Amino acid sequence: MGAWGTWGMRQLPAEVAHELTVKFLEWGGLRFFMRPNLHPQVAGLTMNVPSIGQLPHPIGLAAGMDKNCQAPMGFADMGFAFLEMGTVTPRPQPGNPKPRLWRLKSQLALVNRMGFNNEGTKKIAERLKSQHWDHRATPLGINLGKNKDTPIERALDDYLCGIAEFAELSRYLVINISSPNTPGLRALAEKSFLQELARGAGSSLDKLWIKLDPDMTRRKFQEVIATVSECGFRGIILSNTHKVSYPYEGGVSGHPVFALANSCLEWAHEVHKGTLPTIASGGILCGADILQKIMRGALAVQILTALVYRGPWAVFELLRELTEELKLRGFSRLQDAVGTYYEGES
Ligand SMILES: Cc1cc2nc3c(=O)[nH]c(=O)nc-3n(C[C@H](O)[C@H](O)[C@H](O)COP(=O)(O)O)c2cc1C
User: Fold this and answer.
1) What are the start-end ranges of the H helices in 175-257?
2) What separation in Å is there between the alpha carbon of 253 and the centre of ligand 1?
3) Is residue 267 pLDDT above 90, yes or no?
4) Degrees, nearest 5: CA angle 171-109-276
5) pLDDT at position 43
6) In sequence order, which ranges of the chain are alpha helices (DSSP H)?
7) What is the mean pLDDT of residues 90-101?
8) Least reliable range by pLDDT among 35-44, 123-132, 298-307
9) How far is CA 71 from CA 13, 78, 176, in A?
10) 328 alpha carbon to ligand 1 midpoint, in Å?
11) Is the beta carbon of 262 within 6 A of some atom in ligand 1?
12) Nearest Cα residue to 142 out of 223, 204, 196
């Protein structure tokens, strides 16, 4: 599966290509083309992320690529240091009608309005159990959402259901209150919901990450960051897709969201001053992009759209580029770059 495979995939409708990729990985297809090289050990790139662990490098798989946790081994073979599966909702649901995923090639972007299509908590938890996943080799997290037909006043029950089911099975959990494709979901990014969630989560609180959207005003966003911090959540993932209505209704990912997600990292840092562990997501397409996120305070990053445009060797290529970029900027270890963007600020 070299350049031709990647080129061929791009001739197919985006969602068909996505489904084929996950099936191919589930069947162990990548192993025909490469000797699995679990976690490329690249000197100087190790990162320690609270509740996730010591990682050989900072690149993880973002939520939405493998919603049903079908192919964690295949994604681990691609070199990812950690994986996020989901979004999972308590009950199975079909998601929005197709088409619901588009490529914007000249922008290196995707627009999706998938709408949490997934097989539901029970089936996915059973699958994960049967995989006997070794989290020490590759930490795996589950991203949790609410069903579309759960009234927003009952949303807490949906998240607590996910927490109860996956707390023991996964290394970390993500509360997704940021998808633009489930009506009312983003309104959960507010104080009373987060406080109730923190209370309800009990001893799982220290493995709960909150994934936020990049479309709030600065003031609102910073209030939410302060609340997440006060409530004792493990950390934040910044950010989800940017809501758009043109050329399609949905969330845009890839290059157009890079600067917006960087602003979120900066706004968040103004509030927490480096005390709230952060994972960056949004528009990472090359190694230099990763360093920009780390310099803005992220301890790790996640990618999705880069897999579509750069193909199955994306992680290995990004790591090579990141190493070059580190050297160019005079860092001997990636850890030394964390938060350096803010140096000189009082
Ligand atoms: C097709 C697709 C499906 C996605 N599904 C989810 C999802 O289920 N849950 C979630 O939290 N984020 C989801 N996302 C957002 C990604 O996890 C990521 O935050 C976003 O795409 C920005 O990263 P990127 O620019 O590297 O793609 C999805 C993105 C895409 C493109």
Assistant:
1) 191-201, 218-231
2) 7
3) yes
4) 35
5) 83
6) 3-11, 14-26, 30-33, 72-77, 121-131, 155-166, 191-201, 218-231, 258-272, 287-295, 305-310, 314-328
7) 97
8) 35-44
9) 21, 11, 21
10) 30
11) no
12) 204
